[in-house]
Amino acid sequence: MKLDKQTQSDLFDYLLRLGDDRLILGHRVSEWCGHGPILEEDIALSNIALDLIGQSINFLSLAGKVEGQGRTEDDLAYHRDALDFKNLMLVEQPNGDFGFTMVRQFLFDAYSLLLMEALQASELKELAAIAGKALKEVRYHLRHSSQWVLRLGDGTEESHRRVQNALDDLWMYTREMFESDEVEQRLVQKGIAVDSTSLKSGWESMVFQILKQATLEIPGEQGYYSSGSRQGIHTEHLGYILADMQFLPRAYPDAKW
Length: 257
What we know:
Blueprint: H1 5-30, H2 39-67, H3 73-78, H4 98-119, H5 125-153, H6 157-170, H7 182-189, H8 200-213, H9 237-245, H10 247-251
Helix pairs in contact: 1-2, 1-7, 2-5, 4-5, 4-6, 4-8
């Protein structure tokens, strides 16, 4: 697909969004390695982290090719500053307890499933292929996280309280998933991207059904919500993630493994 300069710039930005979401969430989930509540979950979370980072590699690799400046997925992951990252604020939130991690994962998984399904119809064949491959993994991720939300929400009084608190804390970051801007809309018009606003009703239907079964109260729409991460606005947590994640390649830029 031949791209004009505006479309090339827009697509590079859009691919960073897709890659950064999964890179940062993958890093967050990887922090559970060796700390899972049971061995089975330790392995499951490590595999989910690997899936997310694998997806980010594909999106960031394509971003580097679209940019045409010779940057690889490693360059984009390890040699950008926080203001250059485009990930949702939801995915950079600290792990908290196991219930908090599962709620964060569930809210993102439902969104990611709908997005990957829709991106399979992208006019950009490389993007459609990456989405199709990722979709197989996302289906498992959503099944895993939704089952834990159900078990913990409709479990003991303590587990219910913790998961409800997590939901209340994370809810303000969810509306950002369904915001669309000029970059995205120009790509939508060319059949490359997905209109984020079109995903909201499907996400609510999926999420509300699970939350109801889990006997959890859906937070209200009123009050503060977070926005602007697609333009480089983030919480303080992203800087700490990048300091950890980027230290080695920045300290030894010429290292060969």
